[in-house]
Amino acid sequence: MKSILLLTLAAVCALGLTACKKNADGSTSVDTAAVEKAFASAEPALKETVNTAVAAIKSADYQGALGKLNTALSDAKITPEQKTAVQSLIEQVKKLAMEKLAKPAADAANKAGDAIKNALPK
After folding, report:
1. In terms of residue numbers, what domain contains 45?
2. Most buried among 18, 28, 110, 111, by the most CB within 10 A?
């Protein structure tokens, strides 16, 4: 299951299907304003699901956020505007999650490369 999620995240990032913002330090941030606006007058249960997802995003619980966002998408009472906002946010969260996963992997690869380079005779 996790490998499928990672492959999906990688594919989304590779295709550049998101509209995330880049911060001054080069990191990606997620803009939740559109989804919060779209759900401002939503049914309380649906609004709570989305608010929980937004809180999860802000606390870097991307897997939890994606679960709640997918729950919101499957709600029969979601409007087309809300659906579009949720889909956009899902893509942003996937990109951010992939970025967060890729950095430690790249750092580890660089350290391994340095260790090999230092171990070889000069």
Report:
1. 2-99
2. 18
